[in-house]
Structures are given as structure tokens and as C-alpha cells.
Amino acid sequence: MGENKKMIIAGPCAIETKSGLLSVVKEIHNKVDVIRGGVWKARTLPKNYPGKGEEALKWIHEIQKKYNILFAIEVGTKSHVELALKYNIKIVWIGARTTSNPFAVQEIAEALYNTDTEIWIKNPIFSNLDLWFGAIERVRLNKLEKIKVIHRGFYSENEKTYRNEPRWDLLDRFRLKYPNIPIICDPSHITGDKKLIFNIAKKAIQKNINGLMVEVHHNPDNALSDKKQQLTPKQFIKLLAKLNLK
Ligand code: PEP
Ligand code: MN
């Protein structure tokens, strides 16, 4: 990867059906480094779509091989990690809700001990950097060396434009503390709105981030989670072109 090359990660917020996942992968696999997909979703309300669980891992396992492409999924518990390892997932991420929970981070890190799994840590919902730093230190203490972080914005009562406030100042402070940890920007969860993704992605590139994670769904209008912010594969390919990325 050249100095200015950005790592591109894209895929559905939540994996819903095998055919939906396959149609996204078919259209974008040549444009991305990694496919993302939620297998278990941390939903606010229990009535909301919780993810397909192990069934989705079986689809991923098959598609990973067929397209020779890596997948990244979110894990929140030890049993999620055990299943991810069982289905040969090489990259997992800790979601924004989990980063600030030391018990959960510890459990995840211990379950990954002595594996070569790459781990990405999303910033916590609250704009407290120590919560983020603490999760990184906990993961490091468990000898996980392949670490990246994901900037997905921070909750703020005052933010009107975006779903989450970008707080680029906190990103600068993050860099001062960990200059060698690559940063992936997630403009989908920062904006919460597909129309705003380009602007945040552009700003992130100006800030010299190392990668972008974008939510892409085969049929966003009918997605079972985050429908306002998901792009179609075609919209995503246009976005990359507009950003001069591929
Ligand atoms: C997600 O990536 O789909 C997600 C739930 O994001 P976050 O943890 O940033 O809210
Ligand atoms: Mn999402």
C-alpha cells in the first residue's frame, strides 16, 4: 500500500440475506480491500433487527473463499469471538457501544489472545478519549498487535447536521497519543445521511486518515438498519470516483 493509498472497507450495516450480501460483494469486491458486515447488531430497542448470527458467518465463510476477499465483523462478547474464529474471520471490530465497557473489551481481548486476528476499535459514543485509550491498552495487554481505530463521531446534544459530531479536534489528540495506529474514518455513522457522506469523507482524506469504512446495501430503502445512511453499490462506486480513490 503506497503512502497515500487509503484502505477501503464497505458493506452492509447488517447482513440480512445471502443473496443481498452476494449482490453487494459482486459489485464492489474489486473496489475494496475489506468487506464489512454486521452479524450481531447492538440495537437500542429489542424489537429491532438483531442480525443473522451464525448463519451469516456461514455465508461469509463461503463468500470469503469464492471472492478471495477479507471480511470484518463486529464482536461484542466472548462467544461472538469464538464463532468468528470458527468461521475463519481475520478482522473483527469493537463497536462504539462496547469500547467503553471494560468487562466486554477484556473478554473479547482474552478470547482473541494468541491469534493473529486484526482488531479495530471504534471510538466510544461519548467524547471521552480515555475510554478509547483504555480499550486500546486493554487489547494490547492481551498481545494483540494488529490494531486500527475507527472514527465514527461522538454523541452530542448540540449537533444538528450530523448523527454524530465529527470532533476532528479529538482525532488530532488521538494522533498525538498514538501516532502509529492507523485511523479509519466511518462517514456513514458520523453523518447518518447518505447525502452528507461525500463531505465528511473528503474532510477525512484532507485530515490524512488511513482508510474509509462506508455502509453499502443492495437495497438501502428497505434495509433493516441504518437505511438513511446506506449507499447502493453504484452510489458507492461513484463516491470513490468523486474522491479520486479508485
Ligand atoms: C456499525 O458499524 O454498524 C455500528 C453499529 O456502528 P457504531 O458501533 O459506530 O455505532
Ligand atoms: Mn450501521
Gist of the model:
The protein has helices spanning 18-28, 54-67, 78-86, 96-99, 102-112, 129-141, 168-177, 187-191, 197-206, 233-242, and strands spanning 7-11, 34-36, 70-75, 91-94, 118-122, 147-151, 183-185, 211-215.
What does this structure look like?
The protein has 246 residues and is an alpha/beta fold. It is built from ten helices and eight strands. The two termini are 13 Å apart. Phosphoenolpyruvate is lined by residues 13, 38, 95-97, 122, 152, 189. Phosphoenolpyruvate (PEP) is lined by residues 13, 38, 95-97, 122, 152, 189.
Number of discrete helical segments: 10
Give the full name of the CATH homologous superfamily: Aldolase class I
Shape: globular
Strand portion = 5-15%
**What is the typical, i.e. mean, pLDDT?**
97
Instruction: For the record, give the distance between the C-alpha atoms at the N and C termini, rounded to a whole number.
Output: 13 Å
CATH class: Alpha Beta
The biggest sheet amounts to:
8 strands, parallel, barrel
Radius of gyration: 17 Å
- State the secondary-structure class: alpha/beta
Ranges where pLDDT stays below 50 over 5 or more residues in a row are none
